[in-house]
Design goal:
Helices cover 55% and strands 2% of the residues. With 427 residues, the protein is mostly helical. Helix 6 runs antiparallel to helix 7. The N terminus is likely disordered.
Amino acid sequence: MAQDDKEATKVKNAREVLWHISGADYDLTNFVAKHPGGSISIQLGLGIDCTRLFMSYHPPGSIAHKILETYRVSTAEPEPLPKSEFHQALCDMVKKHFEGKGKGAHKASYSHLAFLALSMIAMYVSWWAWFCGYWFSLVTWPLASWLVFTNGVHDASHFALSSKAWVNHAMCFTALPLLVNPLTWYSQHVVEHHSHTNEMDHDVDLCHLLPFRLHKLDTRRGGMENLAKTVLTGIHLGIGVPLNALTGAMEQLPGEGFPEGAGIKLLHCFRENTWHYVSMWSALIGAVIFLTFPPFYQETILKKICFWLVPYVLTSLLFMVFTQVSHIQEACQTDRVLDTTDFFKRQALTSLDYSMDSKFWSLLSGGLNMQSLHHSIPWVSSCHYHELYPKFRKVCTEHGALPPTIEDFPSALLAFYSYVKKLNVHS
């Protein structure tokens, strides 16, 4: 038995240093430093089945497919990657749109970077004002932090902000201290959520409010009081999830333990790299310090409580509202949508779009108002969505993958609330 355990451990360890794509194993270790998208983007797939991740960022027929085969180490022939005429048409559309505009034209434009820079200035000025005890910072800091996150961090975590990998990774750390830890965000959002959107037991975004049901196939049913968890999302994602990923301690809690964090693991590339490991612990400790700092320096009890909770509450609400309203919708969880076998069609159909012509809502949501476009081509910066969306809709129509839409954000929010109420309130 001991020998069997050793062999099993040996096999497990061997698989952790390989990339698994379409039924075959690849050793891309010597290619990591050469990867055009940077080392982190390729290492996200290390030790896991990264077939969908690979397909999402490498258009059909690209040179990446040829390079990949030169690093295959398994004797088994890889299964053919699932073909999607819809995805091919989308990639052709994007290629034609940016043709002649130079390398990296699909990344953030100068005007978008200028807006992002102004948002960052507002964020850090508001942060300083929060330290100084100015009441207005309780609103301006969360709002500016959200704008930086949704217009900068979100794009950067998908490697769509800049052609320079280090810029994308550095940008991800500006989500702290009010929102996510970047090293667990890669796992939660880029790897899990985008590869398994609205898939029960796989999409970790369906676990934000457990035991609250966010999917019609979920057997649990919570009370409406669980919606209160939306105001704690920043603490959950910035402290709870990283702490659990590093130590597993939260899963040892009595009762249900910490199921929300159980699906978000510290990826192999971060766990085995000392620099990443230290930076994650530093970010976690820093978030804890900022969470507990105000009670020690504000004068009155009211001010202590407000400066302690309000920034987290407002930022958490903005995060939950704008990220969940586009997927937790009845139209995004119909039998037809959930039974769709084409991965890229499913990405479009599991997303609800709203206010597609509004630049205000586009900036406030970081392009999440055109979520179907983002999920179909995540490697394109959100600043290009307005120009691309009409062309995207045309391709969707031609291939029977037209995503659901609703008039505006308030209507989308009301539809979201009505659906989760229908899922959870006993009739």
